[in-house]
């Protein structure tokens, strides 16, 4: 048991658009057991964290309006830019961690120390966001919606 955190993307597939019809057909070829079913969405897990409670707290405070009930919440690209900027500042100056990206205690949330594990989570998140937020990546992901959800 523990704090498991997921950043996912979902892409709705319209059956009346040529491009999406091709995608629907491709998914149906990969999953023949879905033949005859309406394939209307694809989803992907872009990032997973475990017990990165400071990152979790940021998502709860920023995109979930302080409500932490394991709900799936829509995340904007602007929110991700903000998280990247915060991670960059904390990565560059560890003394800013407690103020900019505070740890959060909780049942099975892991350590609240500002130690190597905390900064590893910050670095891993920053590296992922730097790749995810490139123009090329965002252009490729046009039409996708992004979500954060945690469970414990």
Descriptive notes:
With 152 residues, the chain is an alpha+beta fold. The chain is 44% helix and 20% strand. The chain contains six helices and four strands, in the order βαβαβααααβ. α3 packs across α5. The chain starts with a strand and ends with a strand.
- Give the neighbour order of strands across the main sheet: 2-1-4-3
Number of helices: 6
End-to-end distance: 6 Å
- Which structural class matches the secondary elements? alpha+beta
Report low-confidence residues grouped into runs of 5 or more. Answer: none
Task: Give the CA-based shape.
Answer: elongated
Helical proportion, percent range: 40-55%
Estimate the mean pLDDT confidence: 95
Q: What percent strand?
A: 15-25%
Characterize the main sheet: 4 strands, antiparallel
Order of helices and strands: EHEHEHHHHE
Q: How many whole angstroms does the radius of gyration measure?
A: 18 Å
